[in-house]
């Protein structure tokens, strides 16, 4: 018989502290910290290629807005449209939770298409190749925020590192899929950093983007098998919504890698 003491009893308070009516939550702190660290890393990368500060500042402004809007709208339309169509005011209440990584990815891609058209005048893949590196790190921070919120976890497990999410009234251990995904993001970040700084693959436009898509969304696809459904309608699906949304990204990643390997290296000489 498996004893409950063999598992990790998790009852973290999502709130870090209160300042009057303002609540500072772990999720928000980790989200913001990830962006700040990601900005520092991205800035260092772009400055190494003699990119102007004007480009850098505008680029990260686009990304912040696109990530929040894309991730929120992705959750609204992919996972909760039945609810939000009846309660449209709730769409704007991001602090209540509900962000979808696939929506965030689509939002960033759209923002970078606009940024490349209006500001850099370069192939959008040049920009995305550089942004996916810190993005992988930010994704890991966000998943740790999900852990602090005791949300988006897995199905029942007998493994000794299973978490009993007591705040949600759970009495059996579940897979801490937030940690699994965070590790996948951090490992992907390390691999992308290696390709960027230690090889010349950053000069093959689309290569780093392809690696990011394959690593991140393949991991997401397989982890979804041991994750609880986020919405009731997924119970009747052979693959859940997260898996169906991951497949196009993996296929696109494979295509970009193969394409980039066939293209000559391209190095831009002029800054903004």
Molecular structure report:
- There is one protein chain.
- With 272 residues, this protein is mainly α.
- It is 58% helix and 6% strand.
- It has eight helices and four strands.
- It has helices at residues 26-48, 53-78, 81-84, 101-120, 124-148, 177-198, 207-223, 241-262; strands at 8-10, 15-19, 22-25, 163-165.
- It has a two-stranded parallel ribbon.
- Strand 2 (15-19) and strand 3 (22-25) form a beta hairpin.
- Helix 4 packs antiparallel against helix 5.
- The longest helix has 26 residues, at 53-78.
- The termini are far apart.
- The model has no long low-confidence stretch (mean pLDDT 88).
What's the layout of helices and strands?
Elements (H helix, E strand, L loop, with lengths): L7 E3 L4 E5 L2 E4 H23 L4 H26 L2 H4 L16 H20 L3 H25 L14 E3 L11 H22 L8 H17 L17 H22 L10
Parallel strand pairs: 1-4
Antiparallel strand pairs: 2-3
Order of helices and strands: EEEHHHHHEHHH
Distance between the termini: 66 Å
Strand order of the largest sheet: 1-4
Overall outline = globular
Number of helices: 8
Radius of gyration: 20 Å
- Please estimate the helix content: 55-70%
Total strands: 4
- Main beta sheet, described? 2 strands, parallel
